[in-house]
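DM from R.C. (forwarded with permission)

"hey, sorry to bug you on a friday — could you get me a structure for this? deadline for the figure draft is monday and I only need the backbone to look sensible"
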Amino acid sequence: MIGPKVGARREAEVYAWGDDAVVKLCRPGYLGHRAESVALANLDGHSVAPRLTDIAHCDGRPRLVLERLGGSDMPALLQRQPWRVLGLARALARARLAVHGIHATGDPPDLRQVLAARIENAALPPRLRAFALRLLGGLPAGDRLCHGDFHPGSVLVAADRVSVIDWAGAARGVPEAGHARTVLLLRWADPLPGTPLISRGLMAAGRSAFAHGYARRYSGGSQRPLQLVDSWLAVHAAARVPEGIEAGQPKLIGLLGRVRRQAPR
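My reply, with the result:
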């Protein structure tokens, strides 16, 4: 039987399921369970994500039964232990490198197609939308597993394990595409409205150190030189505009505009 609620996300509610599992009940109309189940099948045996044990429906809602993980997410750990900022940044990069070492099978979505659909729906000036789509059209396809929204809040840290959760946006692409999304979130995501000015300053300083530590460890651990990261950053900035993060939209549009001005004519 379904036990107490242990968490909630935008796309699903999570409940206890016995002693060693949780059940993720997707919200009505949400179809991310398809990509998540494909991603978790790819990740099985790699010890970098919860194990998927069952897929079913409950009152018409998709239900995923997952291994129950211990630990805390990275933002919670950083609040309690801010001195761990560089160690956790490197752990985030190692988890990202482990994921990007996995070939995507089972036909997950092409990340470029996902981004193109988001950019088409973005409230952007027409010239910036056209530029972002043109830039995306020149970027390469790939066959590696990409999380889709990889950031500290999607990583659980226990004493002996780092695990990546929330795979509803999983797709296939090149490693630089997923890496650029993470860099964008670490560097330019705004605090929630109402955050005190002093807290904003502290968060900005910590975020800068975290982003630098993550990027340095990721690039140092990559098996090949990273390519076209700035182009992927611009594309992700355009694709993030329709996500409803109104406070951060001027930064995203500004980033996209700077890349457009610097692009060869």
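R.C.: lifesaver. The domain at 72-262 is CATH 3.90.1200.10 (Aminoglycoside 3'-phosphotransferase; Chain: A, domain 2).
me: no worries. Residues 192-202 have pLDDT under 50 and may be disordered.
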